[in-house]
């Protein structure tokens, strides 16, 4: 395929290097949206990057009380890790540090049953033991939950969670004239992609590459070829008109939804003022084995 244009903006003929990860989808609810949001953001804390523990975690969307098992507002979080065992530990840790301390919270599995390939349990975890012997396993809200006494009443946390192999790292780069224009394009992209069911999307300024040229003990370092402040840099992929670059990362349970998210995101970004080009990056298979070509997002069939 050759370079294409979307909304008059060049889209690079290259591929995003994706990788497989184990995924859970978790719903955190509370008595109102304020406390549900607080608990969700605490639970997904330090979750933006997959390059260091704890596991990657992203808030997918807000849900209304009509969509939740306990009839209260909540937020859905996707958590991903390359290994199911480490994801299981991370799930318990994130819930213990984020959802458990916040007022009036409950936690449920939110992965559709038709997508689940297996299940992981919170048995023998910090969640199962937090009740210090006063916890019970019960049927509540149509789910099997741990019911744990708390100072503000009962805390309900579902006992097991659907898990599946997901696709993460669908990525493109927004190259824009100015900081303001790049950020506005990134914000529009996040809003548009965030409307797609089951997709999570993030904006990153760090733009990591796999490995390092100088500090070779590092797993990931800056993507120097896309740093405008380093111009003129030998091998840079930028030119003087580019003042700012943002990385957009799209992940989800299937490649189909990731491709849809990338396509919608690029269409949103290229419709914004000051966007000069859309690029992507890959690392010779060091990040992952998956490949999503940017032009292929618009291929027929």
Automatic annotation (TrEMBL):
Region described as Disordered: 47-73
Gene3D superfamilies: 3.30.70.520
Residue runs in coiled coils: none
Annotated Formylmethanofuran: tetrahydromethanopterin formyltransferase Ftr C-terminal domain residues: 154-295
GO terms for biological process, alphabetical: one-carbon metabolic process
Source domain of life: Bacteria
Formylmethanofuran: tetrahydromethanopterin formyltransferase Ftr N-terminal domain boundaries: 4-149
InterPro entries for the chain: ForMFR_H4MPT_ForTrfase_C, ForMFR_H4MPT_ForTrfase_fd-like, ForMFR_H4MPT_ForTrfase_N
Protein name listed in UniProt: Formyltransferase/hydrolase complex subunit D
Species per Swiss-Prot/TrEMBL record: Stratiformator vulcanicus
Gene designation: fhcD
